[in-house]
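User: My collaborator sent over this chain with a note saying "see what the structure looks like." That's all I know about it. Can you take a look?
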Amino acid sequence: MKNKKLISLLTICLCAGVMAGCAKTPEESLVKQKGSASLGNYEEGAPLDEMNAEQSTSEGAENAGNAEGTGTADAAGTAEGTGSTDASGNPVNTGTAVNMEIGNASGNAGTAESPLRKALGAPERYQNDFEDATGNLSVKTDAVVEIPDANQVSAVSVSQHPFDQAQIDLITKTFFPDGVIYRLDDLFAMTKSECMAKLEELKGYVAQGNLDPYNYGTDENGNLHFDIYEAISSLEEEYENAPEERTLTEVTPELTPWESDTSDGESLPGDFYGLVKQPDETEYVYTLKTYDSMPMDISIVKVHEDPKTKEKQYQSGSRWMEYYVICNAISEHGNTGWQNVPTEEEFKNTLGITLEEAQAEAEAKLSELGLTDMKLNNWDYGILGMEHPNDRGDDFTSEVVDEGMILHYTRVVNQLPITYTQAMGGSLEDMNSDMQTWCYEMVDFVVTKDGIDSVSLWNLYDIGETRTENLSLMSFADIIKVYEKMILIQNAAMMDYAETARINIDRITFGYTRIYEPATSSQTGILVPAWDFFGGISQSIRDEDGTLQEYPHEGFKTNSQITINAIDGSIIDRSLGY
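Assistant: Without extra context I'll predict from the sequence alone. Here is the result:
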C-alpha cells in the first residue's frame, strides 16, 4: 500500500533599514485578523517615484553627514567601521543587510532599479538560516526575490464573473467552433444485450449461492453492502427501456436545473457532461459545474487511449503531473508506482514543443475569451500517467502516455500579477460551518506537440474599482522579521511527530492575492499585495519500531509555505482565502 499512499500524496499535492513612508511592524499584525479588519481600509501612501526620490535625498544627506569614519560592507553585506549612531547612541549598520546577496533574478523578478524594488528596499536574492529554540525545526532561505516592474501598488476590488449562458457559449465557441457535442452519459448507457449479459451473470451467482460475488462484505449489522437481488431488479427494469444499439444525442452545453427543486422552490443548477468530437477525430470531455465554493468550474480534457487495452478512456483514470515532482519522488523513494518515466534527455528529445509555442496556443484562446490581462505566471514540464491496477489488485501503477507543458495563468492588474500557488482557497475553519466559501480564480492549460490537451477555468473574476490608489507598504526588512518569527510558529505542530524538520525556501515573490470575508460576502473580495515564500520541507520521522526514516521530499514549486500581507504584515491563510 506504500505506493498507493505516495501516489495519493503526489496527486493531492497536484494549497535592514525602514524605508520612508513604510509602515512599522505592529506585534498584533502577526495574528490573522478576523471580520471586517481582514479587508481593512488601507492607508493611502505616497506614489513610488516620490518615495524613491525622498529616499534618495535622505540617503544622500546621510552619506554626506557620515563621510568620515564609514567603512564598506563585506561580501556578505556586513558593514564595518560605521561611524553613525541612532537616537539612543547605538551603532547603525549603513552597509547592505547581513545575509542579503545580489544574484541573478529569474523570470518576472524585475530589475534592481525597478521603482517597487527600490521602494521596498529588497535585494535580488536573500539568504539566511535560523531555527527554533530546540534546534530541531530549522529554516534555510536561499531565494530569488521576484518583484515585478510595477509603478504603483493599489488595493483593487474583485467579484465573481457571472457563469451564465453567454459565458458558456463563449467557452464553447472558443474551444470547439467546429466540434459536435454529445451527451456523455450516452456512452455508458447499457444496450439490451449488455443488460441481458449482466443479468445472466448475477442470476448465475445466485444459483451458485454466491450472494457477495464482488467481495464487498457486510456492515456492522451483518447486512451485505451489495444487494444482489436489488441489482437484478434494477437491471430488469433498465432492460425494458434499453436501446438495441448505443446512440449519442447531440446537445447544447448548458447548466440545466435539477429535476427536483429545493424546499423553498428555488431551482438548483445541474452539471453538464459532454463529449466533443472534433473534425480531426480527436475527442474531449467537456464539463461545466457550479457548486458551493466553486461558482464556476469548467474542465476540458482530451480523451486518450489506454496503451494496454487500446480502449479510449472517457472517465478519470489519467492525470497530468509535474515531471520534476515524479523524478524527485523516484530518486528519493525508489518505486513510486510510475512506469516508463523518461530521463530528462529522453523527455526533451520527444517533447516536440517549445515554451513559446505552448504559450502561443494558450494565449490565442485567452484572447478569444477576452482575458487579455492574463499572463503566464508559472509553468512546468508535465507527464500524463494512465492508472492501472497491479497484478494483485490492491494497488495502482501509472504508466506515462504523453508529455507536455503545464501553464498557469493569472491576471496582471496595474503591472502587478496575482501570484500563482497550488492552494485552491475556499476552505472552512470549522467543518461544521455553514458559511459560503469562494475558491480562487485559476486558469491552467496543458499543451503538447499535438495541441491543447486540457484546460481548467475556475471562478473567473471581474476586476472592480480601486479601493486605495497608492498603498503604504512595509519594507522588505520588516517583512523578513515577520517571516522569521511566524514560519516557526506556523510549523511548530509538525514537531509533534517529527524528530527534525527543515523548511527550505528557494523563491520569494511579491504579487497580488485575493482575500475576502466569507461571513460577509462570498461573491466579492479585494486584491492586496502579499509576499509568498515558496519551498518544501524535509523531515526525519521515527517509525513505531524506532527506526528513523528520512523524508527529503521538497514539495511542489508552487507550494507557498507562508503568505504575508505586504501592507500590515498579517498572515494570510491561503487555504482559507483570508
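A starting point for your reply to your collaborator: The chain has three domains: 16-61+97-159+473-565, 162-186+247-261+268-464, 190-245.
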